[in-house]
Structure of Transglycosylase associated protein:
Amino acid sequence: MGIFGVISWCIFGLIIGAIARFVMPGVQAMGWGMTLILGIVGSFVGGALSSLVSTGGSEGIVNPAGWVMSIIGALLVLFVAGKLQKS
């Protein structure tokens, strides 16, 4: 993966993290960097969940199902992080 791959993952992670923070009710006290990490980790969680449910191959970053699963994964990570932070 070259520099453009890393940049595209960062942009994708930032978008997914921002969508997850917008959808999740309540206040999430995190900056842009944590939003980016949330989106990237959420994408991996969503991909893992997707591979458990489906046997189909991935079609790249513009796959709508990949975006949806990434957002679901980011919401799950955000929920768990919120619960751990309150403890």
In short: Residues 64-86 form the longest helix (23 residues). The mean pLDDT is 84.
